[in-house]
Structure formats: structure tokens, C-alpha cells
């Protein structure tokens, strides 16, 4: 059916969808423009309130994520200083070997954690084959450096990256909630303006009809 004149097409489309969902057929005689407009204003007002409530809830979640991010930064700092100091004292070949061993171990630990979550059970600890191969070529001191200094550094660095990603997710969700709130508020105001225009037109028409009736009475007065 054609959109009711005077209201945004989105308003008519939304109302028609509501009626069809209820198994009804919307006819022009079933709902006048004012009722339709007030219905749409109510929907948009509720949507704006819900979006604002979501935004306020996300503020708390964002604050928690930011706190976790700061903690991850603080936890990383001493490990980063120790790793950078150590790696700066060894030759390039040994540095690359220790870095690769630590990265392979981190990769393996991540996969084990993911499998444990998916299977909801403990996954036995098995070393990454490349980590094992590199560690076999290192002496005992270098192996300890990998496990006690280099690997913890990469682990903390990874946790910081995860905290930062979580922080941006919350930030994006907050921005989306604000946009939804603004959209619902704007559309509600647009429909409200249409209702005011309809009211003004109705008032003007009533004045015109009243004036016309008075002119008819005066013009057709009874003479002796």
C-alpha cells in the first residue's frame, strides 16, 4: 500500500510491518495519521532510551577494560626491560634462536588453551616441535633464558595486545550506542514535527470551515 501522506515512508513501512506480524491487513480506515505518528514517536523514544542505557552500561565495562589494559602495561614493563637487556648482549644468531623458541612456545600455549576451551577439558602439555628442536640446540643457560625471560616477555606482550583489542571493542560499542541513540532521537523528532504540521493543517482547516460557515450565515440572512 502507499505510504500515508504527510508521514515519512519509513514510518508507514514500519507500521505496516507491525500489522503484518500481527496477521492484520492495514487499511487507511484502520489507523489515522495521528495514531500512527504517536505510535512511531513512542517506538523511537523507547529505542533512544534503550540505547542510552546500553551506553551507560558500556561505560562501566569500558572502565574495567581500561583498568585491565593499564595492569597489562605495568606487568609487561619489567619483563620487557629484562628481555631487551638480555637480547642486546648476545649475538644475532642466538638472539633469533631464542626469540623463535619463545614465539613457538607461545603459539603452542595459545592453541592448547583454545582446544581446552572448545573441548571443555584439560589438554596435556606437549611442546611445539619447532620449539623443541631449537631448545635442543641451546645449552642449559640459554634454555633457561628462553623459558624464564624471553617467553614471559612475549606472553605479557601478547596479553597487552589482547587487553588493547578488548578496550577498542568496548570503545566501538559505546560509539555505536551513541549513534543509535542519536538516530532514534532524530527520527522521533522528525515524526513529532510531522505531527505538529498535521495539527496545524487541521487547525487551519477548522478555522477556514468556521469562517466559511459564518460568511454563509451572514450572506444568507433572513429579510423582512
Structure description:
Residues 80-119 form a coiled coil. Keywords: Coiled coil. By secondary structure, the chain is an all-alpha fold. The chain has a domain at 32-179. The protein has 5 helices and no strands. The protein has helices at residues 9-21, 33-87, 92-119, 129-136, 140-219. The radius of gyration is 35 Å and the shape is rod-shaped. The protein starts with 8 loop residues before the first helix and ends in a 5-residue tail after the last helix.
SSE pattern: HHHHH
Strand content: under 5%
Q: Mean pLDDT across all residues, rounded?
A: 78
Largest sheet, in brief, is: none
Low-confidence parts: 1-9
Rounded to the nearest angstrom, the radius of gyration is: 35 Å
Q: In percent, how helical is the residue content? A: over 70%
Keywords: Coiled coil
Q: How is this fold's topology laid out?
A:
Elements: H1 9-21, H2 33-87, H3 92-119, H4 129-136, H5 140-219
Helix pairs in contact: 1-2, 2-5, 3-4, 3-5
Amino acid at each position: 500500500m502507499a505510504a500515508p501522506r504527510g508521514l515519512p515512508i519509513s514510518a508507514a513501512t514500519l507500521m505496516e510491518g507491525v500489522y503484518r506480524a500481527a496477521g492484520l491487513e492495514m487499511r487507511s480506515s484502520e489507523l489515522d495519521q495521528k495514531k500512527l505518528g504517536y505510535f512511531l514517536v513512542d517506538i523511537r523514544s523507547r529505542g533512544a532510551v534503550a540505547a542510552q542505557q546500553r551506553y551507560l552500561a558500556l561505560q562501566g565495562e569500558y572502565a574495567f577494560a581500561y583498568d585491565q589494559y593499564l595492569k597489562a602495561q605495568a606487568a609487561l614493563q619489567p619483563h620487557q626491560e629484562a628481555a631487551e637487556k638480555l637480547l642486546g648482549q648476545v649475538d644475532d644468531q642466538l638472539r633469533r634462536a631464542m626469540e623463535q623458541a619463545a614465539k613457538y612456545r607461545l603459539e603452542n600455549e595459545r592453541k592448547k588453551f583454545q582446544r581446552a576451551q572448545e573441548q571443555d577439558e584439560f589438554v596435556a602439555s606437549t611442546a611445539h616441535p619447532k620449539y623443541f628442536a631449537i631448545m635442543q640446540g641451546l645449552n642449559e643457560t640459554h634454555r633457561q633464558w628462553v623459558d624464564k625471560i624471553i617467553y614471559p616477555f612475549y606472553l605479557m606482550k601478547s596479553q597487552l595486545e589482547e587487553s588493547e583489542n578488548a578496550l577498542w571493542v568496548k570503545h566501538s560499542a559505546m560509539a555505536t550506542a551513541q549513534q543509535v541513540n542519536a538516530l532514534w532521537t532524530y527520527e522521533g523528532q522528525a515524526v513529532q514535527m510531522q505531527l505538529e504540521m498535521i495539527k496545524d493543517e487541521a487547525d487551519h482547516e477548522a478555522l477556514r470551515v468556521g469562517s466559511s460557515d459564518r460568511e454563509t450565515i451572514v450572506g444568507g440572512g433572513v429579510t423582512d
